[in-house]
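Quick start: what a row looks like.
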Amino acid sequence: MQPAGQGRQQRAWGRGRLVTKCFDGRTRLDEFYQEGAAKIRLPNTYSSEMEAVIINTAGGLTGGDRMEWSITAAAGCHVTATTQACEKIYKAAFGTAEISTRIEAGAGAKIHWLPQESILFDNASLTRTLEVDLAADAEFIAVEAVLLGRKEMGEAMRHGAMRDSWRVRREGRLIHAEELRLQGDIAALTARGAVLGGKVAFATLLYAGPLAEALLPLVRAALGDCHGGASQWQDKLVVRLTAADGFALRKNLIPVISVLRGGASVPKVWNL
C-alpha cells in the first residue's frame, strides 16, 4: 500500500512462462510467454536438454516490484533454468519486492532450478515463493543463494526484511517445506551463532529424486571442511552452506551443484 501524500510511482513488473515437450528425443519449446520486465532466452545447448536464462530487464527490484516465473517440463524433458545475473534487491521506501516461481515436472522429467545469487542491500525487503509439483519419478534440483550486501564493495545489509517460502510436492504430497524469515536488525540477528554466526552469504540446495542416498557421500566429500552440511531422507537431499562472502560461497557451492548434476557444471552464464 502506497503511503499517503506520495505520488504514484512506477513499479517494475513481469511475467514469464516456459512449457516444454519432447520431440525426436530432444526437449523442445511448446509454450512461451513473456511480459513486462520478464524475458527468457534459450541458448543453444547442442544436447537433448534445454537451457533457459531468465532476465529481469529492470536491473533489480525494490518495494512494490513483482516478478512471476513459471516453468513446466513435460514427460521425459530436461530443463535447466538460471538467471542472466545476480538479482539485486534495493532499498525499499515502502512495500516489498515479490518474486514467485512455479515449477512442474512430468513423468521422468528433470528440472534444475539454478538461479544466481540474490543480493540484498541495506533496508531491502524481499518476499519470495517457490512452488514445485513433481511426478512420481521426476528429478528436481534447486539452489537459492543469498548475499546480505557485497562485502568486497564495503556494503552490508544492516536492516530490512526477507521471507523465503518453498513448497515441493510429489504427486500432490508435500515432501519439502521451508520458511526463512529475517526481519528488523539483520546485522544483530545474523550475528547469532544459531543463525549465520556473522556470515553474510548463505545457500540452500535441494535434490529430490531417485539418487538422493547415493549422492549423499559424494556431496559431503565435495563440501570438505567448509561451513555447511548435508542430510538425506528417502528421495530428498538438503544441503546448507554459509560463507564470509560471495566469492567463498561460490567456491563451495559450484562443486556441490556439479555433484548433484552428475558431473555437469553450472550454466555458462554463471562464469560471464
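That is the whole record. The helical segments are 186-190, 212-223, 246-260. The two ends are 38 Å apart (CA to CA).
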